[in-house]
Protein backbone atom coordinates (compact mmCIF):
# COMPACT_ATOMS: atom_id res chain seq x y z
CA UNK A 1 0.00 0.00 0.00
CA UNK A 2 1.24 3.49 -0.82
CA UNK A 3 2.40 5.61 2.11
CA UNK A 4 1.00 9.15 2.39
CA UNK A 5 3.90 10.14 4.63
CA UNK A 6 6.53 9.42 1.93
CA UNK A 7 7.49 11.94 -0.72
CA UNK A 8 7.47 9.55 -3.68
CA UNK A 9 3.72 8.97 -3.20
CA UNK A 10 3.21 12.58 -4.32
CA UNK A 11 4.88 12.12 -7.72
CA UNK A 12 1.52 11.29 -9.37
CA UNK A 13 0.35 14.83 -8.51
CA UNK A 14 2.01 16.06 -11.70
CA UNK A 15 0.25 19.40 -11.92
CA UNK A 16 0.51 20.26 -8.24
CA UNK A 17 -3.11 20.12 -7.06
CA UNK A 18 -1.73 20.07 -3.49
CA UNK A 19 -0.55 23.64 -3.96
CA UNK A 20 -3.92 24.77 -5.29
CA UNK A 21 -5.59 23.07 -2.32
CA UNK A 22 -3.19 24.58 0.20
CA UNK A 23 -3.40 28.11 -1.21
CA UNK A 24 -7.14 28.08 -1.92
CA UNK A 25 -8.23 30.69 0.63
CA UNK A 26 -8.36 34.16 -0.88
CA UNK A 27 -8.21 33.04 -4.53
CA UNK A 28 -10.72 33.81 -7.27
CA UNK A 29 -12.16 36.93 -8.87
CA UNK A 30 -13.16 39.89 -6.73
CA UNK A 31 -16.13 42.07 -7.68
CA UNK A 32 -15.30 45.75 -8.21
CA UNK A 33 -17.96 46.72 -5.62
CA UNK A 34 -21.08 45.14 -4.09
CA UNK A 35 -23.87 44.81 -6.65
CA UNK A 36 -27.27 46.40 -5.90
CA UNK A 37 -29.76 44.15 -4.08
CA UNK A 38 -31.96 42.27 -3.86
CA UNK A 39 -29.74 39.42 -5.01
CA UNK A 40 -30.65 36.18 -6.73
CA UNK A 41 -28.56 33.35 -8.08
CA UNK A 42 -28.95 30.70 -10.78
CA UNK A 43 -26.13 28.17 -10.98
CA UNK A 44 -24.98 24.91 -12.44
CA UNK A 45 -21.81 22.83 -12.56
CA UNK A 46 -19.05 24.19 -10.36
CA UNK A 47 -21.30 27.05 -9.26
CA UNK A 48 -24.04 24.75 -7.94
CA UNK A 49 -22.70 24.19 -4.43
CA UNK A 50 -22.02 27.89 -3.81
CA UNK A 51 -25.61 28.71 -4.75
CA UNK A 52 -26.91 26.04 -2.39
CA UNK A 53 -24.72 27.31 0.47
CA UNK A 54 -26.32 30.75 0.34
CA UNK A 55 -30.06 30.95 0.64
CA UNK A 56 -30.52 33.44 -2.18
CA UNK A 57 -33.67 33.18 -4.30
CA UNK A 58 -33.42 31.89 -7.86
CA UNK A 59 -35.20 34.91 -9.18
CA UNK A 60 -35.35 38.62 -8.37
CA UNK A 61 -37.55 41.25 -10.02
CA UNK A 62 -34.87 43.92 -9.70
CA UNK A 63 -31.40 44.22 -8.21
CA UNK A 64 -28.82 41.67 -9.37
CA UNK A 65 -29.19 38.13 -10.63
CA UNK A 66 -25.94 36.17 -10.61
CA UNK A 67 -25.66 33.46 -13.22
CA UNK A 68 -22.93 31.03 -12.21
CA UNK A 69 -21.93 29.08 -15.30
CA UNK A 70 -19.39 26.52 -14.16
CA UNK A 71 -20.43 23.47 -16.08
CA UNK A 72 -20.93 21.39 -19.10
CA UNK A 73 -24.59 20.64 -18.61
CA UNK A 74 -26.38 20.65 -21.90
CA UNK A 75 -29.12 23.12 -22.55
CA UNK A 76 -29.35 24.11 -18.89
CA UNK A 77 -26.90 26.96 -19.49
CA UNK A 78 -28.81 28.47 -22.36
CA UNK A 79 -32.16 28.03 -20.63
CA UNK A 80 -30.96 29.73 -17.46
CA UNK A 81 -29.37 32.54 -19.46
CA UNK A 82 -32.57 33.20 -21.35
CA UNK A 83 -34.61 33.10 -18.18
CA UNK A 84 -32.24 35.52 -16.44
CA UNK A 85 -32.36 37.99 -19.33
CA UNK A 86 -36.17 38.25 -19.31
CA UNK A 87 -36.24 40.15 -16.01
CA UNK A 88 -35.40 43.69 -15.02
CA UNK A 89 -32.57 42.68 -12.68
CA UNK A 90 -28.99 43.25 -13.80
CA UNK A 91 -27.57 39.89 -14.87
CA UNK A 92 -23.95 39.14 -13.92
CA UNK A 93 -22.53 36.08 -15.65
CA UNK A 94 -19.69 34.40 -13.76
CA UNK A 95 -17.85 31.33 -14.97
CA UNK A 96 -15.86 29.89 -17.85
CA UNK A 97 -18.41 30.01 -20.63
CA UNK A 98 -18.39 32.43 -23.52
CA UNK A 99 -19.79 35.82 -22.64
CA UNK A 100 -18.91 35.63 -18.95
CA UNK A 101 -18.50 39.07 -17.45
CA UNK A 102 -16.38 37.60 -14.65
CA UNK A 103 -14.08 34.79 -15.70
CA UNK A 104 -13.55 31.84 -13.37
CA UNK A 105 -11.39 29.02 -14.73
CA UNK A 106 -12.59 25.41 -14.41
CA UNK A 107 -11.26 23.65 -11.34
CA UNK A 108 -12.59 21.07 -8.88
CA UNK A 109 -11.89 23.74 -6.22
CA UNK A 110 -13.94 26.46 -7.90
CA UNK A 111 -16.96 26.03 -5.60
CA UNK A 112 -15.03 28.00 -2.97
CA UNK A 113 -14.26 30.74 -5.50
CA UNK A 114 -17.89 31.09 -6.62
CA UNK A 115 -18.91 31.31 -2.98
CA UNK A 116 -16.25 33.93 -2.23
CA UNK A 117 -17.31 36.01 -5.22
CA UNK A 118 -20.98 35.85 -4.16
CA UNK A 119 -20.22 36.79 -0.56
CA UNK A 120 -18.14 39.80 -1.66
CA UNK A 121 -20.65 40.78 -4.33
CA UNK A 122 -23.49 40.80 -1.79
CA UNK A 123 -21.59 42.65 0.90
CA UNK A 124 -21.16 39.63 3.20
CA UNK A 125 -17.50 40.20 4.08
CA UNK A 126 -18.04 39.08 7.66
CA UNK A 127 -19.47 35.70 6.60
CA UNK A 128 -16.53 35.26 4.23
CA UNK A 129 -14.08 36.04 6.99
CA UNK A 130 -15.63 33.28 9.12
CA UNK A 131 -15.41 30.82 6.23
CA UNK A 132 -11.80 31.70 5.50
CA UNK A 133 -10.80 31.38 9.14
CA UNK A 134 -12.42 27.95 9.34
CA UNK A 135 -10.56 26.83 6.21
CA UNK A 136 -7.23 28.14 7.50
CA UNK A 137 -7.79 26.28 10.78
CA UNK A 138 -8.56 23.09 8.83
CA UNK A 139 -5.51 23.57 6.64
CA UNK A 140 -3.13 23.33 9.58
CA UNK A 141 -4.06 19.67 9.99
CA UNK A 142 -4.58 18.64 6.38
CA UNK A 143 -1.49 19.39 4.27
CA UNK A 144 0.95 16.67 3.15
CA UNK A 145 3.62 17.58 5.70
CA UNK A 146 1.24 16.78 8.59
CA UNK A 147 1.79 13.09 9.33
CA UNK A 148 -0.97 10.50 9.23
CA UNK A 149 -1.61 10.31 12.96
CA UNK A 150 -2.36 14.06 13.15
CA UNK A 151 -3.99 14.41 9.72
CA UNK A 152 -7.71 13.53 9.60
CA UNK A 153 -7.88 13.75 5.79
CA UNK A 154 -5.08 11.22 5.32
CA UNK A 155 -6.70 9.00 7.92
CA UNK A 156 -10.10 9.14 6.23
CA UNK A 157 -8.52 8.39 2.84
CA UNK A 158 -7.06 5.14 4.20
CA UNK A 159 -10.48 4.24 5.61
CA UNK A 160 -12.11 4.74 2.20
CA UNK A 161 -9.45 2.94 0.16
CA UNK A 162 -10.86 -0.06 -1.74
CA UNK A 163 -14.27 0.72 -0.32
CA UNK A 164 -17.34 2.44 -1.76
CA UNK A 165 -17.95 5.62 0.26
CA UNK A 166 -21.56 6.46 1.20
CA UNK A 167 -21.92 10.12 2.21
CA UNK A 168 -24.65 11.30 4.57
CA UNK A 169 -24.81 14.89 5.76
CA UNK A 170 -28.16 15.53 7.48
CA UNK A 171 -27.22 19.05 8.64
CA UNK A 172 -26.72 20.16 5.02
CA UNK A 173 -27.75 17.61 2.41
CA UNK A 174 -26.20 19.34 -0.66
CA UNK A 175 -22.78 18.56 0.83
CA UNK A 176 -23.37 14.92 -0.13
CA UNK A 177 -23.47 15.65 -3.86
CA UNK A 178 -20.56 18.06 -3.50
CA UNK A 179 -18.57 15.25 -1.84
CA UNK A 180 -19.57 12.81 -4.58
CA UNK A 181 -18.32 15.31 -7.18
CA UNK A 182 -15.01 15.86 -5.37
CA UNK A 183 -14.39 12.13 -5.06
CA UNK A 184 -15.09 11.59 -8.75
CA UNK A 185 -13.19 14.55 -10.13
CA UNK A 186 -10.18 14.52 -7.77
CA UNK A 187 -10.21 10.97 -6.37
CA UNK A 188 -11.30 9.39 -9.69
CA UNK A 189 -13.56 7.27 -7.51
CA UNK A 190 -17.14 6.22 -7.31
CA UNK A 191 -19.22 7.05 -4.24
CA UNK A 192 -22.83 6.88 -3.17
CA UNK A 193 -25.36 9.37 -1.86
CA UNK A 194 -28.73 8.45 -0.29
CA UNK A 195 -32.07 9.74 -1.62
CA UNK A 196 -34.37 12.17 0.23
CA UNK A 197 -35.58 9.48 2.67
CA UNK A 198 -32.07 8.57 3.76
CA UNK A 199 -32.75 6.60 6.95
CA UNK A 200 -35.34 4.44 5.21
CA UNK A 201 -32.82 3.87 2.41
CA UNK A 202 -30.19 2.73 4.90
CA UNK A 203 -32.67 0.33 6.50
CA UNK A 204 -33.88 -1.26 3.29
CA UNK A 205 -31.27 -0.80 0.57
CA UNK A 206 -28.60 -3.04 2.00
CA UNK A 207 -30.59 -6.22 2.44
CA UNK A 208 -30.56 -8.34 -0.70
CA UNK A 209 -26.92 -7.73 -1.48
CA UNK A 210 -25.75 -7.78 2.10
CA UNK A 211 -23.21 -10.52 1.60
CA UNK A 212 -21.81 -9.49 -1.74
CA UNK A 213 -20.51 -6.52 -3.65
CA UNK A 214 -18.13 -3.76 -2.68
CA UNK A 215 -17.46 -3.15 0.98
CA UNK A 216 -19.26 0.08 1.88
CA UNK A 217 -17.77 2.83 4.02
CA UNK A 218 -20.34 5.22 5.48
CA UNK A 219 -19.15 8.78 6.06
CA UNK A 220 -21.40 10.72 8.45
CA UNK A 221 -20.81 14.42 8.01
CA UNK A 222 -21.63 17.06 10.60
CA UNK A 223 -23.39 15.16 13.41
CA UNK A 224 -26.92 15.70 14.75
CA UNK A 225 -29.79 13.38 15.68
CA UNK A 226 -30.27 11.98 12.17
CA UNK A 227 -26.55 11.17 11.96
CA UNK A 228 -26.77 9.30 15.28
CA UNK A 229 -29.73 7.26 14.06
CA UNK A 230 -27.93 6.60 10.77
CA UNK A 231 -24.93 5.38 12.74
CA UNK A 232 -27.10 2.95 14.67
CA UNK A 233 -28.65 1.62 11.47
CA UNK A 234 -25.46 1.47 9.43
CA UNK A 235 -23.05 0.09 12.04
CA UNK A 236 -24.03 -3.50 11.38
CA UNK A 237 -24.59 -3.00 7.64
CA UNK A 238 -21.37 -1.43 6.36
CA UNK A 239 -17.74 -2.43 6.37
CA UNK A 240 -16.48 0.81 7.92
CA UNK A 241 -18.05 3.92 9.41
CA UNK A 242 -16.40 7.32 9.79
CA UNK A 243 -17.86 10.24 11.71
CA UNK A 244 -16.65 13.66 10.64
CA UNK A 245 -18.01 16.26 13.06
CA UNK A 246 -18.24 19.84 11.84
CA UNK A 247 -15.70 22.28 13.24
CA UNK A 248 -16.77 25.35 15.24
CA UNK A 249 -18.30 28.24 13.35
CA UNK A 250 -21.37 29.43 11.49
CA UNK A 251 -23.39 26.84 9.61
CA UNK A 252 -21.92 28.20 6.37
CA UNK A 253 -18.34 27.98 7.68
CA UNK A 254 -19.00 24.45 8.94
CA UNK A 255 -20.29 23.25 5.59
CA UNK A 256 -17.40 24.79 3.64
CA UNK A 257 -14.83 23.47 6.12
CA UNK A 258 -16.23 19.95 5.73
CA UNK A 259 -16.15 20.37 1.95
CA UNK A 260 -12.48 21.43 2.19
CA UNK A 261 -11.67 18.41 4.39
CA UNK A 262 -13.29 16.15 1.79
CA UNK A 263 -11.36 17.80 -1.04
CA UNK A 264 -8.12 16.93 0.75
CA UNK A 265 -9.41 13.42 1.45
CA UNK A 266 -10.24 12.91 -2.24
CA UNK A 267 -6.75 14.19 -3.07
CA UNK A 268 -5.10 11.64 -0.76
CA UNK A 269 -7.35 8.91 -2.08
CA UNK A 270 -6.17 9.62 -5.65
CA UNK A 271 -2.58 9.25 -4.45
CA UNK A 272 -3.40 5.96 -2.73
CA UNK A 273 -4.89 4.71 -6.00
CA UNK A 274 -1.80 6.01 -7.81
CA UNK A 275 -3.72 8.35 -10.13
CA UNK A 276 -3.20 12.05 -10.92
CA UNK A 277 -5.67 14.06 -8.78
CA UNK A 278 -5.86 16.90 -11.35
CA UNK A 279 -8.40 17.18 -14.16
CA UNK A 280 -8.07 14.84 -17.10
CA UNK A 281 -8.04 16.19 -20.65
CA UNK A 282 -11.27 14.37 -21.32
CA UNK A 283 -13.08 17.09 -19.34
CA UNK A 284 -11.89 19.72 -21.84
CA UNK A 285 -13.38 17.66 -24.63
CA UNK A 286 -16.72 17.41 -22.83
CA UNK A 287 -16.65 21.19 -22.40
CA UNK A 288 -16.14 21.61 -26.15
CA UNK A 289 -19.11 19.49 -27.20
CA UNK A 290 -21.47 20.96 -24.64
CA UNK B 1 -31.42 -18.32 -11.37
CA UNK B 2 -35.06 -17.76 -10.43
CA UNK B 3 -37.55 -17.64 -13.29
CA UNK B 4 -40.00 -14.71 -13.39
CA UNK B 5 -42.30 -16.69 -15.67
CA UNK B 6 -42.88 -19.43 -13.06
CA UNK B 7 -45.49 -19.18 -10.34
CA UNK B 8 -43.31 -20.44 -7.48
CA UNK B 9 -41.02 -17.41 -7.88
CA UNK B 10 -43.92 -15.29 -6.60
CA UNK B 11 -44.23 -17.09 -3.28
CA UNK B 12 -41.86 -14.63 -1.57
CA UNK B 13 -44.42 -11.88 -2.26
CA UNK B 14 -46.20 -12.86 0.95
CA UNK B 15 -48.29 -9.72 1.35
CA UNK B 16 -49.26 -9.38 -2.30
CA UNK B 17 -47.44 -6.25 -3.40
CA UNK B 18 -48.13 -7.35 -7.00
CA UNK B 19 -51.81 -6.69 -6.42
CA UNK B 20 -51.17 -3.24 -4.96
CA UNK B 21 -48.93 -2.47 -7.95
CA UNK B 22 -51.47 -3.74 -10.46
CA UNK B 23 -54.44 -1.94 -8.91
CA UNK B 24 -52.61 1.29 -8.11
CA UNK B 25 -54.42 3.60 -10.54
CA UNK B 26 -57.35 5.34 -8.87
CA UNK B 27 -56.37 4.51 -5.27
CA UNK B 28 -55.76 6.96 -2.44
CA UNK B 29 -57.78 9.66 -0.69
CA UNK B 30 -59.97 12.04 -2.67
CA UNK B 31 -60.43 15.66 -1.57
CA UNK B 32 -64.05 16.65 -0.90
CA UNK B 33 -63.67 19.57 -3.37
CA UNK B 34 -60.84 21.61 -4.90
CA UNK B 35 -59.13 23.80 -2.30
CA UNK B 36 -58.92 27.58 -2.87
CA UNK B 37 -55.81 28.76 -4.74
CA UNK B 38 -53.09 29.80 -4.98
CA UNK B 39 -51.63 26.42 -4.00
CA UNK B 40 -48.31 25.61 -2.40
CA UNK B 41 -46.78 22.37 -1.20
CA UNK B 42 -44.21 21.33 1.39
CA UNK B 43 -43.34 17.64 1.42
CA UNK B 44 -40.99 15.01 2.71
CA UNK B 45 -40.68 11.23 2.65
CA UNK B 46 -43.25 9.54 0.45
CA UNK B 47 -44.71 12.93 -0.48
CA UNK B 48 -41.41 14.31 -1.83
CA UNK B 49 -41.65 12.98 -5.39
CA UNK B 50 -45.23 14.19 -5.88
CA UNK B 51 -44.19 17.70 -4.81
CA UNK B 52 -41.30 17.66 -7.25
CA UNK B 53 -43.53 16.46 -10.10
CA UNK B 54 -45.79 19.50 -9.79
CA UNK B 55 -44.19 22.90 -9.98
CA UNK B 56 -46.08 24.37 -7.06
CA UNK B 57 -44.30 26.92 -4.87
CA UNK B 58 -43.20 25.94 -1.36
CA UNK B 59 -44.96 28.89 0.13
CA UNK B 60 -48.16 30.84 -0.53
CA UNK B 61 -49.37 33.95 1.27
CA UNK B 62 -53.00 32.89 0.97
CA UNK B 63 -54.96 30.05 -0.58
CA UNK B 64 -53.92 26.52 0.42
CA UNK B 65 -50.61 25.10 1.54
CA UNK B 66 -50.47 21.30 1.36
CA UNK B 67 -48.15 19.67 3.86
CA UNK B 68 -47.35 16.13 2.67
CA UNK B 69 -46.05 14.20 5.67
CA UNK B 70 -45.04 10.81 4.36
CA UNK B 71 -41.82 10.18 6.16
CA UNK B 72 -39.69 9.55 9.13
CA UNK B 73 -37.32 12.44 8.68
CA UNK B 74 -36.38 13.86 12.02
CA UNK B 75 -37.20 17.40 12.84
CA UNK B 76 -38.06 18.20 9.25
CA UNK B 77 -41.69 17.38 9.89
CA UNK B 78 -42.04 19.65 12.88
CA UNK B 79 -40.10 22.47 11.20
CA UNK B 80 -42.24 22.33 8.08
CA UNK B 81 -45.41 22.19 10.14
CA UNK B 82 -44.44 25.25 12.14
CA UNK B 83 -43.45 27.13 9.03
CA UNK B 84 -46.72 26.26 7.32
CA UNK B 85 -48.80 27.43 10.30
CA UNK B 86 -47.20 30.90 10.38
CA UNK B 87 -48.90 32.02 7.18
CA UNK B 88 -52.44 33.02 6.31
CA UNK B 89 -52.94 30.15 3.87
CA UNK B 90 -55.14 27.23 4.89
CA UNK B 91 -52.84 24.33 5.81
CA UNK B 92 -53.94 20.83 4.74
CA UNK B 93 -51.88 18.06 6.30
CA UNK B 94 -51.83 14.85 4.28
CA UNK B 95 -49.98 11.71 5.32
CA UNK B 96 -49.61 9.18 8.09
CA UNK B 97 -48.42 11.37 10.93
CA UNK B 98 -50.50 12.37 13.92
CA UNK B 99 -52.81 15.26 13.21
CA UNK B 100 -53.14 14.54 9.50
CA UNK B 101 -56.41 15.89 8.13
CA UNK B 102 -56.21 13.44 5.22
CA UNK B 103 -54.81 10.03 6.10
CA UNK B 104 -52.54 8.25 3.64
CA UNK B 105 -51.06 4.95 4.83
CA UNK B 106 -47.34 4.29 4.39
CA UNK B 107 -46.50 2.41 1.21
CA UNK B 108 -43.66 2.44 -1.31
CA UNK B 109 -46.39 3.21 -3.88
CA UNK B 110 -47.77 6.25 -2.04
CA UNK B 111 -45.99 8.80 -4.27
CA UNK B 112 -48.72 8.14 -6.87
CA UNK B 113 -51.41 8.67 -4.24
CA UNK B 114 -49.97 11.98 -3.02
CA UNK B 115 -49.75 13.13 -6.63
CA UNK B 116 -53.33 12.08 -7.34
CA UNK B 117 -54.58 13.89 -4.23
CA UNK B 118 -52.72 17.06 -5.19
CA UNK B 119 -54.00 17.00 -8.77
CA UNK B 120 -57.61 16.57 -7.61
CA UNK B 121 -57.20 19.14 -4.84
CA UNK B 122 -55.92 21.75 -7.30
CA UNK B 123 -58.52 21.05 -9.99
CA UNK B 124 -56.11 19.35 -12.41
CA UNK B 125 -58.38 16.44 -13.35
CA UNK B 126 -57.22 16.54 -16.97
CA UNK B 127 -53.55 16.13 -16.00
CA UNK B 128 -54.53 13.23 -13.73
CA UNK B 129 -56.46 11.57 -16.54
CA UNK B 130 -53.33 11.69 -18.73
CA UNK B 131 -51.21 10.22 -15.94
CA UNK B 132 -53.70 7.43 -15.26
CA UNK B 133 -53.99 6.54 -18.94
CA UNK B 134 -50.21 6.34 -19.24
CA UNK B 135 -50.05 4.04 -16.20
CA UNK B 136 -52.82 1.79 -17.51
CA UNK B 137 -51.02 1.52 -20.86
CA UNK B 138 -47.79 0.61 -19.03
CA UNK B 139 -49.61 -1.94 -16.89
CA UNK B 140 -50.63 -4.01 -19.90
CA UNK B 141 -46.97 -4.93 -20.42
CA UNK B 142 -45.72 -5.12 -16.84
CA UNK B 143 -47.82 -7.55 -14.80
CA UNK B 144 -46.58 -11.04 -13.83
CA UNK B 145 -48.73 -12.85 -16.41
CA UNK B 146 -46.96 -11.02 -19.28
CA UNK B 147 -43.99 -13.24 -20.18
CA UNK B 148 -40.39 -12.05 -20.12
CA UNK B 149 -40.02 -11.43 -23.84
CA UNK B 150 -42.95 -8.97 -23.85
CA UNK B 151 -42.39 -7.52 -20.37
CA UNK B 152 -39.83 -4.69 -20.19
CA UNK B 153 -39.86 -4.59 -16.37
CA UNK B 154 -38.97 -8.28 -16.09
CA UNK B 155 -36.30 -7.81 -18.72
CA UNK B 156 -34.77 -4.82 -16.94
CA UNK B 157 -34.79 -6.71 -13.63
CA UNK B 158 -32.67 -9.50 -15.17
CA UNK B 159 -30.25 -6.87 -16.52
CA UNK B 160 -29.84 -5.34 -13.07
CA UNK B 161 -29.49 -8.62 -11.17
CA UNK B 162 -26.14 -8.91 -9.35
CA UNK B 163 -25.21 -5.48 -10.67
CA UNK B 164 -25.21 -2.03 -9.07
CA UNK B 165 -27.75 0.14 -10.95
CA UNK B 166 -26.78 3.73 -11.76
CA UNK B 167 -29.84 5.84 -12.61
CA UNK B 168 -29.63 8.89 -14.86
CA UNK B 169 -32.73 10.80 -15.89
CA UNK B 170 -31.72 14.11 -17.50
CA UNK B 171 -35.27 15.01 -18.54
CA UNK B 172 -36.41 14.96 -14.89
CA UNK B 173 -33.61 14.54 -12.36
CA UNK B 174 -35.81 13.89 -9.26
CA UNK B 175 -36.80 10.57 -10.87
CA UNK B 176 -33.30 9.31 -10.03
CA UNK B 177 -33.80 9.60 -6.29
CA UNK B 178 -37.33 8.22 -6.61
CA UNK B 179 -35.86 5.21 -8.43
CA UNK B 180 -33.17 4.79 -5.78
CA UNK B 181 -35.90 4.79 -3.11
CA UNK B 182 -38.01 2.22 -4.96
CA UNK B 183 -35.06 -0.10 -5.44
CA UNK B 184 -34.15 0.11 -1.77
CA UNK B 185 -37.63 -0.21 -0.32
CA UNK B 186 -39.10 -2.76 -2.75
CA UNK B 187 -36.01 -4.37 -4.28
CA UNK B 188 -34.02 -4.30 -1.00
CA UNK B 189 -31.14 -3.26 -3.22
CA UNK B 190 -28.50 -0.61 -3.38
CA UNK B 191 -28.30 1.74 -6.35
CA UNK B 192 -26.43 4.87 -7.35
CA UNK B 193 -27.43 8.34 -8.51
CA UNK B 194 -25.05 10.89 -10.03
CA UNK B 195 -24.54 14.39 -8.57
CA UNK B 196 -25.61 17.66 -10.26
CA UNK B 197 -22.73 17.52 -12.79
CA UNK B 198 -23.64 14.06 -13.97
CA UNK B 199 -21.66 13.84 -17.24
CA UNK B 200 -18.49 15.00 -15.53
CA UNK B 201 -19.13 12.41 -12.82
CA UNK B 202 -19.45 9.65 -15.41
CA UNK B 203 -16.19 10.74 -17.04
CA UNK B 204 -14.15 10.92 -13.87
CA UNK B 205 -15.73 8.74 -11.21
CA UNK B 206 -15.09 5.38 -12.79
CA UNK B 207 -11.34 5.60 -13.33
CA UNK B 208 -9.43 4.44 -10.26
CA UNK B 209 -11.68 1.51 -9.55
CA UNK B 210 -12.29 0.61 -13.16
CA UNK B 211 -11.11 -2.96 -12.84
CA UNK B 212 -12.60 -3.80 -9.49
CA UNK B 213 -15.77 -3.60 -7.49
CA UNK B 214 -19.35 -4.33 -8.39
CA UNK B 215 -20.31 -4.48 -12.05
CA UNK B 216 -22.30 -1.33 -12.76
CA UNK B 217 -25.48 -1.22 -14.83
CA UNK B 218 -26.38 2.24 -16.13
CA UNK B 219 -30.10 2.93 -16.57
CA UNK B 220 -30.77 5.92 -18.84
CA UNK B 221 -34.29 7.16 -18.27
CA UNK B 222 -36.26 9.25 -20.73
CA UNK B 223 -33.84 10.00 -23.56
CA UNK B 224 -32.62 13.39 -24.82
CA UNK B 225 -29.24 14.84 -25.75
CA UNK B 226 -27.70 14.45 -22.29
CA UNK B 227 -28.78 10.80 -22.21
CA UNK B 228 -27.11 10.23 -25.60
CA UNK B 229 -23.87 11.79 -24.38
CA UNK B 230 -24.07 9.76 -21.18
CA UNK B 231 -24.51 6.62 -23.26
CA UNK B 232 -21.36 7.44 -25.24
CA UNK B 233 -19.40 8.03 -22.06
CA UNK B 234 -20.74 5.08 -20.10
CA UNK B 235 -20.76 2.41 -22.82
CA UNK B 236 -17.09 1.54 -22.26
CA UNK B 237 -17.19 2.13 -18.52
CA UNK B 238 -20.07 -0.01 -17.25
CA UNK B 239 -20.94 -3.66 -17.39
CA UNK B 240 -24.43 -3.16 -18.84
CA UNK B 241 -26.44 -0.23 -20.15
CA UNK B 242 -30.23 -0.05 -20.43
CA UNK B 243 -32.13 2.72 -22.18
CA UNK B 244 -35.69 3.27 -21.00
CA UNK B 245 -37.37 5.80 -23.28
CA UNK B 246 -40.35 7.67 -21.90
CA UNK B 247 -43.76 6.66 -23.27
CA UNK B 248 -45.98 9.14 -25.14
CA UNK B 249 -47.72 11.81 -23.10
CA UNK B 250 -47.28 14.98 -21.10
CA UNK B 251 -43.97 15.43 -19.29
CA UNK B 252 -45.79 14.66 -16.03
CA UNK B 253 -47.35 11.47 -17.42
CA UNK B 254 -43.97 10.42 -18.81
CA UNK B 255 -42.21 10.83 -15.48
CA UNK B 256 -44.92 8.96 -13.54
CA UNK B 257 -45.05 6.17 -16.14
CA UNK B 258 -41.27 5.69 -15.85
CA UNK B 259 -41.60 5.68 -12.07
CA UNK B 260 -44.29 2.96 -12.36
CA UNK B 261 -42.09 0.91 -14.68
CA UNK B 262 -39.26 1.15 -12.14
CA UNK B 263 -41.58 0.13 -9.30
CA UNK B 264 -42.40 -3.07 -11.20
CA UNK B 265 -38.72 -3.58 -12.01
CA UNK B 266 -37.80 -3.25 -8.32
CA UNK B 267 -40.56 -5.74 -7.54
CA UNK B 268 -39.19 -8.31 -9.98
CA UNK B 269 -35.66 -7.69 -8.73
CA UNK B 270 -36.77 -8.54 -5.16
CA UNK B 271 -38.21 -11.81 -6.47
CA UNK B 272 -34.97 -12.59 -8.30
CA UNK B 273 -33.07 -12.01 -5.04
CA UNK B 274 -35.65 -14.18 -3.25
CA UNK B 275 -36.73 -11.47 -0.80
CA UNK B 276 -40.20 -10.20 0.13
CA UNK B 277 -40.86 -6.99 -1.85
CA UNK B 278 -43.18 -5.56 0.84
CA UNK B 279 -42.12 -3.32 3.71
CA UNK B 280 -40.17 -4.84 6.54
CA UNK B 281 -41.28 -4.34 10.14
CA UNK B 282 -38.12 -2.42 10.81
CA UNK B 283 -39.67 0.54 8.98
CA UNK B 284 -42.50 0.67 11.54
CA UNK B 285 -39.91 0.88 14.29
CA UNK B 286 -38.12 3.75 12.55
CA UNK B 287 -41.48 5.52 12.28
CA UNK B 288 -42.01 5.12 16.02
CA UNK B 289 -38.71 6.68 17.07
CA UNK B 290 -38.89 9.57 14.62
UniProtKB/TrEMBL annotation, chains A, B:
Q: Which domain of life is it from?
A: Bacteria
List the GO molecular function terms. Answer: carbohydrate derivative binding; glucose-6-phosphate isomerase activity; mannose-6-phosphate isomerase activity
Q: One short Pfam family name for this protein?
A: PG_isomerase_N
Family to which this protein belongs = Belongs to the PGI/PMI family.
InterPro entries given for it? Glu6P/Mann6P_isomerase_C, PG_isomerase_N, SIS_dom_sf
What are the UniProt keywords, alphabetically? Answer: Isomerase
**Where does the record place the Bifunctional glucose-6-phosphate/mannose-6-phosphate isomerase C-terminal domain?**
149-288
* All copies of domain Phosphoglucose isomerase N-terminal, residue ranges: 17-123
The record's Gene Ontology biological-process terms are:
carbohydrate derivative metabolic process; carbohydrate metabolic process
Residues in coiled coil: none
Protein name (record): Phospho-glucose isomerase C-terminal SIS domain-containing protein
Amino acid sequence: MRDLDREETYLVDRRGLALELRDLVGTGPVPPAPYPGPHGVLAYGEGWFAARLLSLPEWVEEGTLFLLEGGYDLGEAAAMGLMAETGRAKVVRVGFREGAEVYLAPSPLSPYRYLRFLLLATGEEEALREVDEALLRERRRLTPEVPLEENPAKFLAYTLLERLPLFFSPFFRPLEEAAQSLFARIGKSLSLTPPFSALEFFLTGLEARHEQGDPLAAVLLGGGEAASLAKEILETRVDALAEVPAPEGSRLAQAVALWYRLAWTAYYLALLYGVDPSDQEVLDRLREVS
